[in-house]
Specification:
alpha/beta, Rossmann fold, single chain
Length: 135
């Protein structure tokens, strides 16, 4: 006979994971709140190097990624991620204020799956997560 505890434990195993990578604590906090409300397990990184280290320890299902960050920017992170073992698996959604076509094309050419403009709301985030089959 199943108990509520084991069902709860099983549901936690099935949570999708998201790594929110942004140098803004405010953006990370807002994204965490939205993603948690959508049922994601959320981790955070303040720059691309921290994000890469976390991915090499445990690959998330999806990465929300800022472009402009100190230490390692989003594009540098994306290139390193896609060349690492298991690094082709996560869906990567660039989430940035960079709106020019050149930035979007470079992101997509280097392995981004989608592009989300800041500021974003729950509906636009849901739309992008559906597009990358994470919702």
């Amino acid at each position: 006979m199943e108990t509520g505890l084991s069902e709860s434990a099983n549901s936690n195993i099935n949570l999708k994971s998201c790594l929110v990578t942004d140098d803004s604590a405010t953006v990370r906090r807002v994204a965490r709140k939205l993603l948690t409300s959508l049922g994601f397990e959320v981790d955070e990184a303040e720059n691309g190097q921290v994000a890469l280290d976390k991915c090499l320890q445990r690959m998330p299902d999806v990465v929300l990624l800022d472009w402009n960050m100190p230490v390692m920017n989003g594009l540098e992170f994306l290139k390193a991620l896609r060349h690492s073992e298991g690094g082709r698996a996560p869906a990567v959604v660039f989430c940035t204020t960079e709106t020019d076509v050149d930035h979007i094309q470079r992101a997509m050419a280097n392995g981004a799956n989608e592009y989300l403009m800041k500021p974003f709301d729950k509906e636009s985030l849901i739309s992008k997560l559906e597009m990358v089959a994470c919702l």
